[in-house]
Amino acid sequence: MSPCQEFTFVIPDQHIARAREVLLTANFASCCQDDCRLVQPTNRSPRPYAHFILANMERPSDEIPGWHYFRLDLHKKSQLLWTLPDIPLGAPAPDNPNYMLVTDNQLDKYNPRSGLGREPYTHHPVKIPTLPRYAESLAYMYLRECLPRPGGCSRAGFWLREMSYIGQYCRLQTADLEARIQRLWQLQYHPSGLHRMFRHGDRLAAELSNANFFPLEEEEGE
């Protein structure tokens, strides 16, 4: 297992309070620490609606105060995946362009050393976005962070790293992305560096903001 393990679930807004209650009833330890880095104004990762400390896992010897190396996060769909349709109740259809299962054969074979790839069919069939929709969602979250933010703390770098990971390790075809995201994605790999992507991203973010495309970011949570 890696030194830091996070399990992140995106829940439909109308069900997220109930999801939190279920985990509390199951004796998951909700974090109530005032020094938790996730709730600090300077935190550069997305703040969850609720997060739970997985205290039964081994902690590293060099643990940083206020940071949970093993945790479970709950996020509202309206905050991270607002461009996607409702998450289906059952298994997505094989040709669903938006969602798939972690056991889907489209995913690479599971690698037990890295913990990446298609999950065994014996595992619970968790739903995830298809690769193009996930990549688009990352791009839109990056663009939202290109807008001026009170206090100057931006999470753009967080989402850009996630985009870079997809580009490096996943078999994403740029042609499968929405037209307005294709250019942004391609500019990540421009020979002259990222400055062209930054300029294009700032322009696109302003256009989308003027069209009220981005949801209001909620800072409440725990």
Automatic annotation (TrEMBL):
Organism superkingdom: Eukaryota
Protein name: Uncharacterized protein
